[in-house]
Specification:
Number of strands: 0
Helix content: 55-70%
Number of helices: 16
Largest sheet: none
Order of helices and strands: HHHHHHHHHHHHHHHH
Strand content: under 5%
Radius of gyration: 18 Å
Structural class: mainly alpha
Distance between the termini: 38 Å
């Protein structure tokens, strides 16, 4: 499944950018499978129970709901989606990026603009998913093939962006937040996908959402030893991107089963320096300290 998904994503990336993105995409999926598999190997009945309640809560209560930034309605987002999962309203901008070979240029400009472009696409996907969560769209509409393909298409662009360029804000805050909320809007279907049900396209979309969500931990790269162990206390020290609000207030850190449970214990259990602990969101304390 992992190899097939990466090949699928690479095919989408090639179509979108005309440049291979194998190195970056492989890095993103290797991270996801590594930490996801570590989490699955650490069995703890009490923590599993807490995580299950945690997931059920997020399926009903979106995280940073004000970040859902699009003027389009869910129906308009759906109407703009082509059969291959591309928003018609974003196609011209994407084609321009492709003509300029911008997707693989590791510079602040155009990467900042590309980050906003991908965030816009993921907010539109989230808008559709949220309408399904609220009962405004049917499952057939909100989980149609073109919606799942959109997750793969725009997720593939994001996962394949150069890691030696600027990946702050959109890649670690906005896009993972949209991916996380989309995942929880479809929690029942995501649970099915993780259990090997629902078909290949749903399973690939599920993996993609979790891969992009993990960027809350992995992006931007620090280019030090913590890139090899993102779930560590040292990851959240001595760098402006990884302390205070930039570390814990805006990142979608404690969500689902992306990272080992023991890592949450270390983060929420007071191991961080006192001057940073106030930034830990209240739900982390409630879930893991009570």
């Amino acid at each position: 499944m992992q190899r097939n998904l990466i090949l699928t994503i690479l095919g989408l990336c090639l179509a979108a950018t005309a440049f291979p993105q194998e190195k970056e995409t492989q890095f993103a999926f290797n991270n996801y499978h590594r930490y996801y598999n570590e989490a699955r190997q650490r069995g703890d009945a009490e923590k599993e129970k807490s995580i299950k309640a945690f997931r059920a809560s997020f399926a009903q209560h979106p995280y940073r709901y004000h970040s859902l930034d699009t003027r389009l309605s869910a129906q308009e987002c759906l109407a703009q989606l082509t059969a291959d999962g591309i928003f018609s309203g974003l196609r011209e901008q994407e084609e321009q990026f492709r003509k300029e070979n911008a997707f693989q240029k590791p510079y602040s400009n155009p990467q900042a603009e590309i980050g906003l472009f991908v965030a816009d696409a993921f907010n539109r996907i989230w808008k559709v998913a949220d309408a399904y969560r609220k009962g405004e769209l049917t499952e057939e509409q909100a989980l149609s093939g073109k919606v799942l393909k959109a997750i793969l298409h725009y997720g593939g662009i994001e996962a394949g962006r150069p890691n030696d360029g600027p990946r702050f804000h959109a890649s670690c805050f906005a896009i993972p937040t949209a991916a996380v909320n989309t995942y929880f809007c479809y929690l029942k279907q995501m649970d099915d996908a993780e259990g090997g049900k629902g078909g290949t396209l749903l399973q690939e979309a599920c993996d993609m959402l979790k891969t992009i969500a993990l960027q809350a931990w992995t992006q931007p790269l620090r280019h030090d030893e913590t890139d090899g162990n993102v779930v560590s206390i040292s990851r959240f020290r001595n760098h402006v991107w990884w302390v205070g609000g930039n570390a814990l207030a805006y990142r979608s850190l404690a969500r689902g089963r992306h990272v080992p449970f023991h890592s949450y214990d270390r983060l929420a259990g007071g191991s961080l320096p006192a001057r940073y602990q106030y930034d830990l969101p209240n739900y982390v304390f409630r879930c893991f300290l009570d």
